[in-house]
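W.,

You were right to be curious about this one. When I first looked at the sequence I had no strong expectations either way, so I just let the prediction run and decided to look at it fresh. Below is the sequence, 502 residues in total, followed by the output.
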Amino acid sequence: MPGILYITPSYHAGVVEVAGKWVPLYLVTLAGATQAAGHPSAIYDAMTKGVGLGGIEARIRDINPDVVAVSMITATVPDAIEVLALAKKIDPDIVTVAGGIHASFMYEDLLRQVPALDIVVIGEGEQTLVELLDALAVGIDLGAVKGLAYRENEQVVRTLPRPYLTDLDNRPMAWDLLDWEDYTYFILPGSRLGAVATSRGCPFGCTFCSQQKFWRRTWRAQSADSVVREVETLHRDYGVDVVLFTDDYPTPDRQRWERMLDLLIDKALDVKILMETRAADIIRDADILWKYRKAGIIHIYVGTEAASQTTLDLIRKELTVDESTEALRLCREHGIITETSMILGFPDETRESIDRTIEQALVYNPDFAHFLAITPWPYADIYKELEPYVAEYDYRKYNLVDPIIKPKAMSLEEVDQAILDGYRRFYMGKFKEMLDEQDDFKRKYMFNAINRMMNHSFIRKKMGMEGGKMPEEIRRIVESDTVPEEGLVCPFSQAQTKVANS
């Protein structure tokens, strides 16, 4: 039976890695399916391990797989291609496979431009990969396998589409293939971080979003019982005490969601949960938000995205500014840590409009805020509208951090400076606020988080500290008489420490 090695490319960017080392859940799911079907499977999470091509080469040579597979988002495409090329250099007979959002939409470009890529898995991959490996084992024509694209006689061939899975419960998961000591949530020192996708998809149509495009605005969910069994397995068998719900929208079915909360409360697993959802659902659940907290939910990301209703309507967010304000207020009232983001750099953006967005972030007053550059995924609904303003074509920079779009009245450098100012203004005030926080858990959580951010190379650059120069407002805080609780590190006290990317 052909063996398969799943590899994450060694890509690093922005604030994603500031908070933790994240489980590559999509590979755990795929490897679970191929392993259960009898195909030797392995995962090498080079991104989390922080190794380069040398480490990846050693792993490929050690395992000697028949198939090497990578998953691609747009920002990881160049590094993923390097992995595929390396696999072919080691052994030209290795079959190379790419999947994920970018590959699913851009398969034709990839197959025409990347000689090292043999096959693209389009869409949901569990059944497709099993059938692909079965076909490779016996030499069956790949045209019989749904959900593939590949080259044949110098032409790109796409097979019939693969229908979505109808049952997400009780899928085999390859948790045993992970090096669990790699995964931790830095904000809670000593933790072990796991991940669960309670659902797939989203019915909304935000024009900048890749997920609604990938799932074609459908939503399917695991049952509440299945989700809780998965959390229980991670906790019992692998020592996981922090779980990220990776799905964009776990809460649309109120009955299912409340049952999930009730089951988590009954299990009393002492597992902390991180998640995201929509503001409208938080408002809907005002009467059961106490259950969120009792079930272990400590941190919720709410996508506010913009300061003006005009911009929210432009990106079809189906959200109002008032809803965002109320949802964040309700979370604070129930002791849930909040996180949100604001998107900057649209074609009609000006410094004045960005300042209004930053001011709105201060009004929202989440515990964490991110100021992101609008990024035109080449397959997103909004791409055609943004294409005339694209000024950066290096996919590695398509990370929501580096400006890609040049507004009519601003330069890329000015957009980058505006992002800097957003972080500076928000976190100067947030640090001062946290000094007076009365909730012991939240105070420790916030200080640990801001400490990580301020000593991460991306944030240091954005805050003007890369060369050891400390901004005046930071110096004043450091030299103030206020000292954080013992055992917590003031986020600015190591401003001259060189910290590399995770």
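Here's what jumped out at me. The chain has two domains: 4-158, 184-410. And, maybe more interesting for your project: Residues 477-502 have pLDDT under 50 and may be disordered.

Coffee later to discuss?

I.
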